[in-house]
């Protein structure tokens, strides 16, 4: 673990981000049906656990409230879900819409995600029903027809332009940003993945402290940057310095200026990730009130840069710094040391728990 002081006044505890093995997962499995289309994607997988994203497209009449059902074939179990209320009885899983995504017009799409457990195998479910109507195309890739039928006008993929600041979230929350430089294409895996990582951190703090912090809706505020990647990499750099500090420092300064955030700010604990870094110069860190991470961590959250437990553990570690905890020794078994690489087999000490709850953001926990 290395420590450096960021020239903008942000003291950061750097987490080494060496390259790791390729992520375990599967490609999305898409299916067409008379009434619905389902895409079930294993976004990340680690020993005994996995994360999944489910996208539902209504191809039938408009619905006001939906229920998606499927069954697991190998004893998997849902442990946590978001954007749907998910229950399980034996192998049978039921996902019910929540208020903000209950209405689906013809052709409309919504998505939700969950974490689960598995032993032995983790195959993709083979069938789904939406409001008791079978999505009869299954979940395998749709075959190319011999004669191409007429297709409706597709919904265009729109890359968001510069974003205006959203409504200010309530105080006492963890505020999360993904900053996308102007030359980086929009990719939904990034806001979804970063949201999944901070939700897992939220779950872990609840496990360890009996209380946890609140995330906003949406969890991740997507920000189109004011500059291209090279600007973030090469501007405001100290000659001979570690260039990733330029990247996260430029992001930090831009987010503070555009969103009126201080360093630190007692209204929010802030997390920023930027999809930019010089090859081989990844990094980031945190100080009280702020977590700042470069492209390596954003890629990891998106599921394309190694096993997810490393990125879950890294986020728990950096949020710990944001809450005011210092680094501890490299082998002490706590997430504030190199032991975070063993996530989830790492635990806070009682002293660390007390320091969090009695620290500058202790009132955020409930």
Describe the structure.
By secondary structure, this protein is of the alpha+beta class. The chain has 2 domains: 225 residues, Collagenase (Catalytic Domain), CATH 3.40.390; 102 residues, Sandwich (Immunoglobulin-like), CATH 2.60.40.290. 20% of the residues lie in helices and 28% in strands. The protein contains 6 helices and 19 strands. The strands form 5 sheets. Strands 3-4-5-12-8 form a 5-stranded antiparallel sheet, with no helix packed on it. The protein has a 5-stranded antiparallel sheet with strand order 9-10-7-13-14, with no helix packed on it. A hairpin with a 4-residue loop joins strand 3 and strand 4. Helix 1 packs across helix 4. The longest helix has 21 residues. It starts with a strand and ends in a 9-residue tail after the last helix.
Range of strand content: 25-35%
First and last CA, distance: 31 Å
Q: How confident overall, as mean pLDDT?
A: 82
Strand numbers in spatial order across the main sheet: 3-4-5-12-8
Classify the helix fraction into a percent range.
Answer: 10-25%
Largest sheet: 5 strands, antiparallel
| Residue windows where pLDDT falls under 50 for at least 5 positions | 1-34, 137-165
CATH class of the largest domain: Alpha Beta
Radius of gyration: 21 Å
How is the CATH topology of the largest domain named? Collagenase (Catalytic Domain)
Number of helices: 6
Q: Structural class, please? A: alpha+beta
Give the count of structural domains: 2
The CATH superfamily of the largest domain is identified as Collagenase (Catalytic Domain)
Task: Kindly state the number of beta strands.
Answer: 19
Indicate the CATH architecture of the largest domain.
3-Layer(aba) Sandwich
Shape call: globular
Order of helices and strands: EEEEEEEEEEEEEEEHEHHEEEHHH
